[in-house]
Amino acid sequence: MPADSFEVEMALTLEQAIPRVPFFANANELKSTALTGGITNLNYRVDADGNSYALRVSGADTEFLGIRRDVEYAANQAAGVLGIAPGVMYFIEPEGYLVTRFVDGVKIPPEEMVKPRQIRRVAEKLRSFHSEGPRLEAEFNVFRRVQMLAEISHHHNCQFPASFGWMMEKLHTGSSYSAPVRPL
Fold it and tell me: What is the pLDDT of residues 3-33, one digit of tens each?
């Protein structure tokens, strides 16, 4: 296992997921290679009959983190159509495993990413997605997300620091100052 990864429990193993994708199951030549990175997913490059794909195998029970794989699928599909992400080739349901075209690229180093021209490029892509893409059936509100995760953690009898109640009060106070943001 790569040094920058850790054990993630999956609903399906790679060996179980591959046959669920028709063009993998019917391939004459098939090779998979683990990719590094990923927090709630394991990612693989899958080469099938001369074509390269990325297979994202989602971790089990990620819905407890508020992750909605159906919304990720819709967002990835729209971004692919708009040309700002690799095209979605298949979606394994109900597990929410995503297969996209594989893009052989390089990571942009953080010191390059903070440069104004890179920030402008990212902002342009985000504006494009929010103006031309579909309205997704989801919302990300950091205040509600923290509250939801705290409730889930309480339900699972997690231990909290003594100051957690105070922190949640401050969170609630901060949330009263926020207003809905309309994408530009």
Answer: 444 455 677 889 999 999 999 999 999 999 9
Q: What amino acid occupies position 71?
A: V
Flag whether pLDDT at 77 surpasses 70.
Answer: yes
Alpha-carbon dihedral of residues 97, 99, 103, 104, nearest 10 degrees? 70
Contacts made by residues 133-140, CB under 8 angstroms, sequence distance 24+: 133/75, 133/78, 133/79, 133/82, 134/74, 134/78, 136/71, 136/74, 136/75, 137/71, 137/74, 138/68, 138/71
- Containing structural domain, residue 151: 142-175
Q: Is residue 4 part of a domain?
A: no
**Could you tell me the CA-to-CA distances from 9 to 13, 42, 60, 96, 98 in Å, in that order?**
9, 9, 6, 14, 17
What type of residue is 182?
Answer: R
Q: With H, G, I as helix, E, B as strand and everything else as coil, classify residue 43.
A: strand
Residues 37-61: tens digit of each pLDDT: 777 889 999 999 999 999 999 877 7
Contact (CB, 8 A) for 43 and 103: no
In a domain, 27, yes or no: yes
- Count of domains for the chain: 2
